Amino acid sequence: MLKIKKIGVLTGGGDAPGLNAVIRAVVKAAYNAGVEVIGLEDSFDGLIYPEKSRPLVPRDVTGILRLGGTILGTVNRGDPFVEPIVTPQGTFNYAERVVEMFGKMSLAGFYNLNWDLFWRGLYNTILLVVAVPLVTLILAFSVSWLIVRSRSGLRYILEFGAFLPHALPEVILAIGALLLALFVLQGIVPLYGSVWLIAIVYVISRLAFATRALNNSLLQIHKELEEAAYTAGLSTVRTSWRIVVPLLRPTLMSVWIWSAILVYRELTVAVFLISQESITLPAVIWSYWFSGATTEAAAVTLLMTLVLTPLILIFWWFGRRQLMPES
Q: What stretches of 30-158 adopt beta strand conformation (E)?
């Protein structure tokens, strides 16, 4: 994520108590965060006229709490999207300008798309969305069951290992996996440049949350249910499938949907690990944007949003179903 380097602050719509206090707080907080603040005078006029803007530092806002009004000034008719703006170059109506720009919208971004690249990215993304949550749930369930049900002291080491990836930035995991696949496993398992290397990093990074959620749910299932199943002759696997998994279904579905959505939009890990054959949709958008093809990037973003819609609807439906009381 790009770091914000400069912000603007303005006051519009008329005077009100506390405006100077807000300006003072914004300037001091931004200064402490290393962000430059530009004070825009007389509401939106400061955005249009260069002479009506000035840098603000903590020294400029010292002692302004006792002052009335606002040190930046304000007007009631300064919104350029409501009122025409008169400048030496003429009168501009920004509302009409917005309508004009909407009229220029076209499908040119879709015509210029590299559809082979898009379909390749979509295929890899769907493959990750299907595989990563499934593998994450299987591993998380196994680990959580051992942690909650086992009596061995080694379960604490297992729990620590499952939670450890949460303390590491995903960038570190991606770089580590890249170096491991390139210099250690290259002659053993050809993972470098494949979509499976991305999947492995995704599973590791999602494991911490999945085990936390399943640990809490397993603690609420009394062990006597499993003991009764063992007495009836069921094996451990069949007991888990027939008794434990149905009771964990809400948690399993929530973790699956959460993991799938995060995998679908993940960019950081993919940028480090992709190749031409393993590129994902977020990486396609990033490659277009980085090369200056913003129109094509916007087109792929729109398509990606449309593909994501079913996942959002599933999440919404499942959430409502869990909240609705049973009749």
A: 36-40, 53-56, 85-87, 90-92
Average pLDDT over residues 84-90: 64
CATH number of 110-323: 1.10.3720.10
Is the CB of residue 40 less than 8 Å from the CB of residue 10? yes
Q: Rounded distance, CA 55 to CA 36, Å?
A: 7
User: At 85, is the secondary structure helix, strand, or coil?
Assistant: strand
Is the Cβ–Cβ distance between 66 and 21 less than 8 Å? no
Residue whose C-alpha is closest to residue 214's, from 249, 165, 239, 257: 249
Nearest-angstrom CA–CA distance, 60 and 66? 14
Tens of pLDDT along 120-177?
Answer: 999 999 999 999 999 999 999 888 888 888 887 788 888 888 888 888 888 888 888 8
Does position 255 have pLDDT exceeding 90, yes or no? no
d(CA 324, CA 327): 9
CATH of 6-105, one of 3.10.20.310, 3.40.50.450, 3.10.290.10, 3.40.1210.10: 3.40.50.450
Whether 26 contacts 9, CB under 8 Å: yes
Whole-structure pTM over 0.70, yes or no? no
Q: Do 232 and 314 touch, CB atoms closer than 8 A?
A: no
Residue of 102, 107, 117 lying closest to 302 (CA atoms)? 107
The β-bridge relationship of strands 90-92 and 85-87 is: antiparallel
Q: pLDDT tens digit string along 4-63?
A: 788 888 887 766 778 888 989 999 999 998 889 998 888 777 776 777 888 999 998 888
Are the C-beta atoms of 271 and 286 separated by less than 8 Å? Answer: yes
